[in-house]
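INTERNAL AUDIT FORM
Audit reference: QA-55
Scope: verify that the stored structure record matches its stored sequence.
Auditor: D.O.
Record contents follow.
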Amino acid sequence: MSFIRNYFVDVTKRKLQHFAENATFPHFFQPDYKTLKTAFFLKGRWNKDFFKNNAPIVLELGCGKGEFTTGLASRYPDKNFIGIDIKGARMWRGAKTSFEASMTNVAYVRTQIELIEFVFGKQEVSEIWITFPDPFPQKPKSKKRLTSPQFLNRYRQIAKKNTIVHLKTDNTSFFDYTLSTIVEQNLKLLSHTYNLDNNPVDSNAASIYTFYEEKFREKGESIKYLKFRLFPEK
């Protein structure tokens, strides 16, 4: 019992340390609900006031430890990348890595993805990555899936007309649900594969692994990937 108690004390202590360090990073934002609902100071002004450039903004939704956000940012210095998640202790890893590397094209926002339209202005986002989200397998919770029609409509409030959405997942049912949603919404499916290792249709998706992806791979899960245009075909 003593060992278990000490373990949880250590975990809690690390989380508190990570929360405290997050608050010191100049590229880590954690606006509260009231601030978002009234006026988040970077909404519609990310390029002008934070990145200081006109480069495209790419989001990773449910970024976890931020390996994918940081990995993309290191490959594409001509784009800006923002990781979004609600788990601040996890996000600390990506924030610290990018801070120590003096990366100027990365930011992190700790918030619920349901509030994303309060973080960004209209047509402020150029591309979206969704990496290993909670599949919410129970049908009553389908509206919580990050590729549900409800969430796609939220993304459209902040995205440019030619925005592409990428999805990586280990969950076959969630992957099939997303393919069905794409058809139902009259969206253009650009590519997809049920096994990214055997069919690496996207070099970034195939070569940048996340912490959780590694766990799924260790269990022998195949990694699924697809990309589609966010706005319906005319």
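Auditor finding: record pair retrieved intact. The chain has one domain: 2-229.
Action required: none
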